[in-house]
Amino acid sequence: MKIKICQFNPLVGDVFGNADTVIGVLSETSSQEADLLIFPELFLQGYPPRDLLEAKWFIDDSLSAIEKIKKTSRSFPDTGIIVGSAMPSGITDGKGLFNSALLICSGEILLQQNKSLLPAYDVFDESRYFDPAQSVSTVKFKNETLGITVCEDAWKSEELFTGRLYTRDPVAELAEMGAALLINISASPFFLGKQQLRDDVMRNHALKHNLPFVFVNQVGANDELIFDGFSKCFNPKGDICCQLPAFREDAVIFDSSESSAPLVTSQHNEIKSLYNALTLGLHDYVKKCGLSKVIIGLSGGIDCAVVCALAVEALGKESVWGVAMPSRYSSKESVTDAKELAGNLEIQFDVINIEKTFSAFLNTLQPLFKETQPNIAEENLQARIRGTLLMSLSNKFGHMVLVTSNKSESAVGYSTLYGDMSGGLAVISDLTKDMVYKLAAYINTEREIIPQSTIDKPPSAELRPDQRDDDSLPPYPLLDPILTMLIEEGRSRTQTAAAGYDSNTVNWIAKAIRGSEYKRRQAAPGLKVTEKSFGSGRRFPIAAKYNW
To answer: Comparing 545 with 42, which gets the higher pLDDT?
Structure first.
């Protein structure tokens, strides 16, 4: 069977626009080219549609879009379409909605295979919206017996995962029913290491059942989630014999009846994937929000330099505006480094000196601050002035402000509410400081974009004389691995200290993470690139007491 794998980027909520994409591919593909077109999970709604699924008008629009596809398909009776969509269950009990894969041909739905396994962990909350399928069915199409599953249905693998999250294995059930070709449509989000893990899962099914396996994944970014595509076909020996690119749209025709030779695939390059993921996430977030340009506060530091370079790659140099806002504590090198970065990237660059504004604030507050010693309140004034200026420029010119805080800072609250946390998207909020430096080195691979002086200087917020980050925080080489253990690995303070770290340091970090929860709840959305990021996938209480 000749299959066209349609790895496209849907716009969440735009059911008619997404349906037009399906119809466009169908119209341009002859029956001699492909017997079957396959699109990703929930392609008509875009993944994740979240609480749009609870609006009756949205489901009605979705059904109208399906009717439009069915009507067009009558003109192409020799070509089938598999597309993901939400579908009413018709049952009064439960949620009343299925996450379905529809096989459409010649104006009819030949199969509605509903998703069996509904993930409810990390960023997933599908049991909030959907009912699980109670059974699976194979379907005959073009003399081939198809076994179709939806995303999580393929992630039951006793060979790869310990523990029993699910009791059913829909892929195994379909294989036992006589499926000759296994197909999985997915909206599988990216995180570092996910691509290799996903390959192992799909390869295992092909090997276990001695059947070809076709995996079609969504590409693009929706809010904080990034979808890398990287759709693939595996032969019964588990070899990859067809592979689509990561992080961009594509459509490839694959003949499952041919004995395809294995592809020679390269090892996953994590830092390259990280760079591509962040640029895709930034591009889609800005564009899908209806904007085209961004503004960034440039302090001469490593974080804003990396964000600025990513923005130019994602949106083009003409769409990026850098603004330096020095105060009395800013070093001369901070402004010159920011200016050099802007010159290397060929972006618009301006300087707004905040000294007069800062002095005015201090004078205004002096009657109430008298007889107190200067502390973090005066320091944070500078960050809030900068945040206000950037948001004012955003309001005036329609640029989105990009937040430049990293994961190490946001974890322990080393950031200022309504100051450097102000903006529309936190681009590197899921990167530890160590990852930021690695990404800076990758950005400078071919030429020096980020000034070497920016990379070499000790990190500093420059909010008081001779300030350094490690005056207030443990050194990043110590902080980052402890954060990884506490946040991403879920270890306790005792377990983390037992790994060889000073217990007082671990206790301080754990307390800082817990005490900064209220800040993160108010933060801009951040792009998810690790297995456990702050945001919708990590839901901790604010007003609480726990010992970690």
So the answer is: 42
